[in-house]
Amino acid sequence: MLISIASGKGGTGKTTLALLLAAAEPDITLIDCDVEEPNCHLFLKPEWHGQGKEITVMVPRINSNLCNGCSACSVVCLFNAIAISGGKALLFDELCHSCGGCILACQYGAIKEEKKPIGTITTGTSPILPNIHLLNGTLHIGTPSSVPLIKAIKQEVSDLKVDMLLDCPPGTSCSMVTAVKNSDFCILVTEPTPFGKHDLELAMNITRLLHMPTGVVINKNDEATGDKSIESLCQSRDIPVLAKIPHSLSFAKQYAAGFIPDEFKSIAINIWKQLHAERREEA
Amino acid sequence: MKELVIVSGKGGTGKTSISGALAFLSPQKVMVDCDVDAANFHLISSAVIKHTHEFKAGFEPHIDEEACTHCATCTDLCRFGAITAGVINTPLNCEGCGVCAFNCPEHAITMQEKEAGQWFVSDTRFGQLIHAELGLAIENSGKLVSKVRQEAKKIATTNHFPLIITDGPPGIGCPAIAALSGASLALAVVEPSLSSMHDLERLVELVYHFNLPIMVCINKSTLHKENTKQIIDWCNSKAIPIAGKLPYSDAFRTAVQSGKTVMEITDENVKEQMTKLWHNLAKRLDVPAQLSGIGLLRQKLNLF
Known about the structure:
The structure holds two protein chains of two kinds. Chain A is of the alpha/beta class. In chain A, about 35% of the residues lie in helices and about 25% in strands. Chain A is built from ten helices and twelve strands. Chain A has helices at about 15-25, 40-45, 70-75, 100-105, 145-155, 175-180, 195-210, 230-235, 250-255, 265-280, and strands spanning about 1-5, 30, 45-50, 55-60, 80-85, 90, 110-125, 130-140, 165, 185-190, 215-220, 240-245. In chain A, β11, α8 (about 230-235) and β12 form a beta-alpha-beta unit. Chain B is α/β, with parallel strands linked by helices. Chain B is elongated, with a radius of gyration of 23 Å. Helices cover about 35% and strands about 25% of the residues of chain B. In chain B, α4 (about 140-160) packs parallel to α5 (about 175-180). The chains are: A alpha/beta, B alpha/beta. The interface between A and B is large, with 57 and 61 residues.
């Protein structure tokens, strides 16, 4: 079962929840897909299994001896990644989507493809929590699109039949969608503020678009305020609230220091019960 | 005209709260929300949308069913698994490259511009705000970020405003790059947690990559004193000036819950530290921290 943990708003507690849930299972694979800013490893302090795997995308290389500047490649490039300058085609790597359109368009065999590294995938086991197998993606700094790296990570685990948790990037754009896509269940983490609610609604629109079973976890919950707006939103969308994690300064302090406190273990166990029930229903 | 971009790497460190407070303090400015796929600035500034504009970006294939012979040339050439013999079965996989259209032997596929969201010009308690809403599961967030920044520049130029305050997106990928490129100053908001500190290091590397000036603001600095000290030491070692240090305070949450900025909530310590932060930034940007005589006159004239 692949469970993705996402949120519209950043900093609501995706990584926290992923770690809480991972710690509460006897054997689990945790995938950090927040490749721009992966954080799970900071808490798990894993022993890495080797150097990891370099992930590359294919980008065109133009042989200027063969290029006559006919501009056929530039015309078909809808990403404007190729310009004609001084009678030769000139490529802007960072705009390229590796579609291969330019190669098909070039009549002179002047374009070949070569690999360009965009990030790494590393795996590790935590001495603190040896039940967690960590798979971690790290985007190279300056690489604009994280999508190919997230795809590569998901490809890596596509054949695994074990329980997996996937820590997603924030937001609701292409990187979040790529991470969430094809999971069996999506947990959206939110906080009871107008920011949290607004972005939760956007994230719910994405899981609805993907026809994905969804549940909500309200983090940093403060019963004292009597704010029920998130719960009413969930009710109106017919999405269950799986858990409420109380607002806790002591938890925030331990989190800041890089520890996963035991404080909310019972909450994590309870979420797992609901996830397993979901799986039985599916089966 | 100067452009201050508030970024963080990690989400939830307080970008929007700080942007809001700076908008409250700064006398003449235009505001931009560059977090186009999860925009929040409008929620604390009483934004009233004045103009809505469609945003088109990228392309999507349209298939002429009568011309299509289902030869599957498109299936073979599509690298994204989006099309099977003339049927776009997984539209979310489509990147809009046009390979299917350019190589269709029957010319049955045309590429059409895609609706990618909307952008808005709004009036707020603090002046004009340019913000946007990216379409569902759309990939052109970087382009929409560039668009709202461009529009803000036009408005600032027309009004002779010295400053644009930009609430940036999290991360270090395409929207963050689009929000930062060519900015006058990046303000990185960090909190004293291991995650945020780690993400700051990656963000700073990105900012250096683009040769931009940067200052740091430590938010929630009282949450973990040792980590705060470590951030200060790290910034010193990199010669990155610290523009401000804000205490951990419930005022931030209270403010968001009541649709206000922390400057409108009674926590004198936060207000004082925030004002210091603003003065440091204004000095660094060389923009007036308060309204001068001419500025006041101009503001009055603008009323008519």
